[in-house]
């Protein structure tokens, strides 16, 4: 079973924890992780882009000039795509980009990224994540002590408004609960910081 050190918010080593082999000790599957990340990004797309075709723009009700004898190319409407203020040919229309993946694929992907963070040493377990009041400085000092000053994902066992608000305006830092973490956020972070109590909940959900 993989083991990692447990730190306090000051960066001091306060112990060690054994992680579940089934969740944090599998062989990572990059292909499945890629599938899930692409699916997540596709599902985030709004798909609200829209352009007007020649039937939707105003004007162009009559033929601009007669068919023959003018020396001009023949035209049927001044709202054809080649005209200024004309309709857009083959432009985007509202659509739904989302699609679903099998639950087994999603579970394998998130276990893969958990295991990868353990292998690369980017999983940091903190015994207790708490702040007194709404203090961004406390969170900044914690990240500095843990060596996580770049992109960091902080997973808490339960909703803590004070900590969430304190970390909200730190660039590159994101907070999440066990039931809201996703593969993309874990892949996108440099350091994966998890409260000790949240580890137990993760193992309970994904074992």
Task: Kindly describe this structure.
- This protein has helices at 21-24, 30-44, 103-120, 136-146, 161-167, 183-188, 196-206, and strands at residues 3-7, 13-18, 123-126, 152-156, 173-177, 191-195.
- The mean pLDDT is 92.
- Helix 2 (30-44) crosses helix 3 (103-120) and helix 4 packs across helix 5 (161-167).
- The protein is elongated, with a radius of gyration of 27 Å.
- It has 207 residues and is an alpha/beta fold.
- Helix content is 35%, strand content 14%.
- The longest helix is centred in the middle third of the chain and has 18 residues, at 103-120.
- It has a 6-stranded mixed β-sheet with strand order 2-1-3-6-4-5.
Summarize the structure.
By secondary structure, this protein is an alpha/beta fold. The chain is built from seven helices and six strands; from the N terminus they run ββαααβαβαβαβα.
């Amino acid at each position: 079973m993989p083991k990692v050190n447990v730190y306090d918010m000051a960066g001091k080593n306060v112990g060690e924890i054994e992680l579940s082999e089934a969740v944090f000790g599998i062989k990572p599957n990059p292909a499945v992780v890629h599938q899930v990340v692409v699916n997540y990004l596709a599902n985030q797309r709004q798909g609200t882009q829209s352009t007007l075709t020649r039937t939707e723009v105003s004007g162009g009700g009559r033929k601009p000039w007669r068919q023959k004898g003018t020396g001009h190319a023949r035209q049927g409407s001044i709202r054809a795509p080649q005209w200024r203020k004309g309709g857009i040919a083959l432009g985007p229309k509202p659509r739904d980009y989302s699609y679903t993946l099998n639950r087994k694929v999603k579970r394998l992907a998130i276990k893969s990224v958990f295991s990868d963070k353990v292998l690369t040493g980017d999983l940091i377990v903190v015994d207790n994540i708490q702040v007194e009041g709404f203090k961004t400085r406390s969170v900044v000092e914690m990240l500095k002590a843990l060596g996580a000053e770049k992109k960091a994902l902080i997973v808490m066992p339960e909703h803590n408004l004070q900590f969430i608000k304190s970390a909200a305006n730190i660039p590159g830092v994101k907070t999440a609960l066990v039931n809201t973490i996703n593969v993309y956020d874990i892949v996108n972070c440099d350091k994966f910081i998890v409260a000790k109590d949240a580890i137990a909940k993760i193992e309970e959900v994904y074992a």
